[in-house]
Design a protein that fits this description.
CATH class of the largest domain: Alpha Beta
CATH topology of the largest domain: Alkaline Phosphatase, subunit A
Oligomer: single chain
Strand order of the largest sheet: 8-9-1-10-11-2-12
CATH architecture of the largest domain: 3-Layer(aba) Sandwich
Number of strands: 12
Radius of gyration: 21 Å
CATH superfamily of the largest domain: Alkaline Phosphatase, subunit A
Structural class: alpha/beta
Shape: globular
C-alpha cells in the first residue's frame, strides 16, 4: 500500500467578492481532484485546536497525525532544525522575516508594506542576513540564513515570555506600532528590529532592488518564538517510511524532527512560480525508493491568500491539478493499491489575508475501495456530506487504517 497526501496550504476560503461571491475552490477548474472526489470520502476536519493559534505549524502537524497540543514547542524551532541549527535545551528561536516597511521617521509609525520583501531571492537575502549577523551577532544572538524572506534567530538562554510577537503576514497594510510587543522581555528584540531599519535601508542589495523597481528588505521582523522540538518519528508512530516534499523550512523541519526524508527540489520557491512538476517528480522518486508515505506540501495557495490575490489563488489550485496530480497519480497506478488524501491545512481567506481556524474540506480516495463522493470538492460540498473529524489525528488514523 502506498499513501499520498497533497496539502494545499491555506486553500480553504470564504466567499470572495472579486470571484462573484464564490471561493477559489468553487471557481477553479480541477478535474483531477474532482474525479477523485467523485469516488472518495469527502468531509471536513478541524486541524487547529481551540487552545492554539491557527497557523501552518500546528495545522500541518495535525494533518500529519500529530497532536500539536502535546508536541508543539513553537514554529521557529522547526525551521531552525531544517536549516541545520543544533539547538541547546535553553535556546529560544525566533522566525526572522525580511520585510518591507514604509519610510516614516518613527519606527512605530511605519506600515507593513510587504511581509516577504517583494519575494526577495534567497541569494539576495543571504547577503542581508550576513550583514545582520555581522552587526547584531554575538555570544547571545545568532542569525541564520534560510530561504527567501524566511530566516532564523537563535537566542541563547532566552525566554519565550515575550508578549505578542505578531506575525507580519497578519498585519499587511497596517501601521505596525500597535502590533509591537509591550513586554519588557521583548525590548531587546524590538530594539534590534528598529535598529535594523537604519542598517538595511541603504544596504547595497536594497539599493539595487529599488533601482530595479523592487521592494527593499529594509527591516528584520522577529516572531514565532519557541524551544527545542521533540517529535516521535513518523515510522515509530505509524510503522511507515515517510517523506515530506516542501519548499519551506517549516515543513522540512517537521520532517526532520519526525525523521522523515525531506528531498530538496530545485526551483521550489513557495509561491506560484514554484517548480510544481519538480515536486511531483520528487514524490515519484520517493515512492520508487521504497517510501510508503509521501506528503507533498504546496505553499502557493497560502501566499496568494496573504497577498489578496484571488485570481492567482484560483490559478494555483488549477496548476496543482494540471502539473502535480497527473504525475503522481500515474505513478501510483503502478502499485496494487494506494490511497490519496487532499486537503488544506487551514483557511487563508482572501478577505482577511490571514489564517483562520475553520474546519477544512478533505478528500480521501482508495483505489480498491471506491465510494460515492461528490461531483466537485469545495468547502460547501464537503460540509454538506456530514462527515466530520474533530482533529487531524483522527483523520490520519482513518486515512491509514480504513
Amino acid at each position: 500500500m502506498k499513501y499520498l497526501v497533497v496539502l494545499y496550504d491555506g486553500m480553504a476560503d470564504y466567499p470572495v467578492p472579486e470571484l462573484g461571491g464564490k471561493t477559489p475552490m468553487e471557481v477553479a477548474k480541477k478535474p483531477n481532484f474532482d474525479a477523485l472526489g467523485k469516488k472518495g470520502v469527502v468531509g471536513i476536519v478541524k486541524t487547529v485546536a481551540d487552545s492554539l493559534k491557527p497557523g501552518s505549524d500546528v495545522a500541518n502537524l495535525s494533518a500529519l497525525g500529530y497532536d500539536a497540543e502535546k508536541c508543539y514547542t513553537g514554529r521557529s524551532p522547526l525551521e531552525a532544525v531544517s536549516i541545520g541549527v543544533d539547538l541547546a535545551d535553553d535556546d529560544v528561536t525566533m522566525r526572522c522575516n525580511l520585510v518591507t516597511l514604509s519610510d516614516e521617521e518613527k519606527y512605530e509609525d511605519k506600515t507593513m508594506v510587504d511581509y516577504s520583501a517583494g519575494d526577495i531571492s534567497s541569494a539576495e537575502a543571504a547577503e542581508i542576513i550576513k550583514s545582520v549577523e555581522e552587526y547584531f551577532g554575538n555570544d547571545i544572538f545568532r542569525f541564520y540564513n534560510g530561504v527567501s524572506y524566511r530566516h532564523c534567530l537563535v537566542w541563547h538562554g532566552g525566554t519565550t515570555d515575550l508578549g505578542a510577537m505578531t506575525p507580519p503576514h497578519d498585519i499587511s497594510g497596517r501601521v505596525i506600532g500597535e502590533y509591537l510587543s509591550a513586554s519588557p522581555n521583548a525590548k531587546v528584540l524590538l530594539d534590534m528590529m528598529k535598529e535594523s531599519y537604519d542598517l538595511l535601508k541603504d544596504h547595497p542589495v536594497n539599493k539595487k532592488r529599488v533601482a530595479e523597481g523592487k521592494r527593499p528588505a529594509n527591516s528584520i521582523w522577529l516572531w514565532g518564538e519557541g524551544t527545542k522540538p521533540s517529535l516521535e518519528s513518523f515510522y515509530d508512530k505509524f510503522g511507515l517510511k515517510g517523506s515530506i516534499i516542501s519548499a519551506v523550512d517549516l515543513l522540512k523541519g517537521i520532517g526532520g524532527c519526525a525523521k522523515m526524508n525531506t528531498p530538496t527540489v530545485e526551483g521550489a520557491t513557495g509561491y506560484i512560480d514554484t517548480n510544481f512538476e519538480g515536486k511531483a517528480q520528487a514524490a515519484v522518486e520517493e515512492f520508487r525508493k521504497g517510501q510508503d508515505f509521501v506528503y507533498i506540501h504546496i505553499e502557493a495557495t497560502d501566499e496568494c491568500g496573504h497577498r489578496h490575490e484571488p485570481e492567482n489563488k484560483v490559478r494555483a489550485i488549477e496548476i496543482i491539478d494540471q502539473k502535480v496530480l497527473p504525475i503522481v497519480l500515474a505513478e501510483l497506478e503502478k502499485y496494487d493499491d494506494y490511497k490519496v488524501m487532499i486537503l488544506p491545512d487551514h483557511p487563508t481567506p482572501i478577505v482577511t489575508m490571514t489564517h483562520a481556524r475553520d474546519p477544512v474540506p478533505f478528500m480521501i480516495y482508495h483505489k480498491n475501495d471506491e465510494k460515492q463522493g461528490v461531483d466537485t470538492v469545495t468547502e460547501k460540498t464537503a460540509k454538506e456530506t456530514g462527515v466530520y473529524f474533530d482533529s487531524g489525528v483522527d483523520l490520519m488514523k482513518y486515512f491509514l487504517d480504513q
